[in-house]
Amino acid sequence: AVNQDGRSSSLTAPNGPSQQRAIRSALRAAGMDPSALDGLEMHGTGTSLGDPIEVGAAHAVLVEHTQATRLAPLILSAMKSCMGHTEPAAGAVGLLHAVLGAGAHSARPIVHLNTINPHLASLTRKAMSGATDAMALPRQHVAAAATP
């Protein structure tokens, strides 16, 4: 699915509703139920504003309405923690990271993740988990997604 942030408070501030629409569109195009998604590659810039908006959008679509059918927490990963921001190549790098993880049935760790942003704590408590080590995804059927 392709989308853009539309109006947001600044150039570097993501638009949560726009990201929700992109995730829903990708799921619809794949004919996939949100609860079937085991892992999600985040844009993950590590910013105090962007990360909570991005995780909040993913939570709203992939977790909020699927908790009854979700078998395990949604595992979050972010390649930027390993390489830094690759600027115009960020979407391609994130997609490649997601595809490689799906092929290996695992989520790669978010390097240097020591403390969860307080704005993320309530969202990630049980329903979502940042990969702190390489983590096996819970099912043999794995889907990958990237949010460039």
Automatic annotation (TrEMBL):
InterPro entries per UniProt: Ketoacyl_synth_C (IPR014031), PKS_Beta-ketoAc_synthase_dom (IPR020841), PKS_NRPS_Biosynth_Enz (IPR050091), Thiolase-like (IPR016039)
Alphabetical UniProt keywords: Phosphopantetheine, Phosphoprotein
Domain Ketosynthase family 3 (KS3): 1-139
Any Pfam family: Ketoacyl-synt_C
Any single GO BP term: fatty acid biosynthetic process
Gene3D superfamilies per UniProt: 3.40.47.10
GO MF term list: fatty acid synthase activity
PROSITE patterns: KS3_2 (PS52004)
Protein name in UniProt: Ketosynthase family 3 (KS3) domain-containing protein
Source organism of the structure: Mantoniella antarctica
